[in-house]
Amino acid sequence: MEVKSRHHLRSDEVDAITAALSDNLGVDLDADSFEKVAFDDSDWNVVLVDGDPLVLYLDDEPFLTVQGANQHPPRKHVVTVDAGAVSFVSDGADIMRPGITEADDDIGAGDLVVINEESHGKFLAVGRAKTDGDDMVGDSGKVVESLHHVGDDLFEFSV
């Protein structure tokens, strides 16, 4: 991914990002610099936080990247998967009910969520819930659409 442009965000834009992350994920993101990055060859809308790609916009909503979730672990909107699901999630597959061991009850259908693996507590992906959190654990069906995962272009991007 080639950077087309970078510019520092205004304080009101930073306030909107930090408020959204606090409200939606329970994350307090305290940093010295926030820069929005535009790419030549990608549609990702990314914010560098102190130089690291920690925030992305999905449908105009700021959310953590996988790197952001691992650096600032969310306390809300977390879906946990078992070890058997890790390789599939890491390859970008949608998340299926049988692989889910736990999901926050505050998740609603359409919400952005982070995918965590239960063994080491690492975050593997960001996705959009297709059902409420209390309906995610079960025997069959896709319940989270994967939008960003370890190993994709955004995960591999560094400045």
From TrEMBL:
SMART domains assigned: PUA
Record domain PUA: where: 77-151
Any one Gene Ontology molecular-function term assigned to this protein's record: RNA binding
GO BP terms in the entry: formation of translation preinitiation complex
One Pfam family matching this protein: PUA
InterPro entries xrefs: CHP03684, MCT-1/Tma20, PUA, PUA-like_sf, PUA_sf, Uncharacterised_CHP00451
Superkingdom: Archaea
Signal peptide segment: none
NCBIfam families attached to this UniProt entry: arCOG00985, PRK14560.1-6, unchar_dom_2
Protein name: RNA-binding protein
Species of provenance: Haloarcula salina
